[in-house]
Every structure is written in C-alpha cells, then in structure tokens.
Amino acid sequence: MELKWDKDLDDKALDLLSSDALDQIQEKRYDAEMKEEGITDIVKIGVAFSGKKVKIST
Q1: Phi then psi for 39, rounded to 5 degrees?
Q2: Which InterPro entries match (predicted)?
Q3: Whole-model pTM?
Q4: Please, what sign has the CA dihedral across residues 6, 10, 15, 19?
Q5: Helix, strand, coil: what percent of the chain each, to 5?
Q6: Pairing of β 2-5 and β 46-50
Q7: How far apart are CA 27 and CA 29, in angstroms?
C-alpha cells in the first residue's frame, strides 16, 4: 500500500495521485520480497487523500 497526500485537489487530480501511488509500488518493487518467498496473491493499493476526500486504486 502506498499513501499520497496533497492539499486542495479536485476529483481528477485525486485519481491521478492514487494512480501515481500504484506506479510507485511497481517502480520500487515493493512486492519483490514477498514474490521471492513464493507469495503470489498480492494486492497492491494506492491511496490518495486531500482533506476529507479519498481515492483508492487497485
């Protein structure tokens, strides 16, 4: 799971930020150690929030 935050974002910007969080999970290979241990059922979650608004991407 990767969390991102920014001030005063509209819904479209929040969507992009949650997508960026997922991209970071891929680029930095946060799941590599789990894969090495044989874990194959991995859920990647990108969460972006701004004030009281939240966007979750999988």
Answers
A1: -80, 125
A2: PDDEXK_9 (IPR012547)
A3: 0.83
A4: negative
A5: 40, 25, 40
A6: parallel
A7: 5
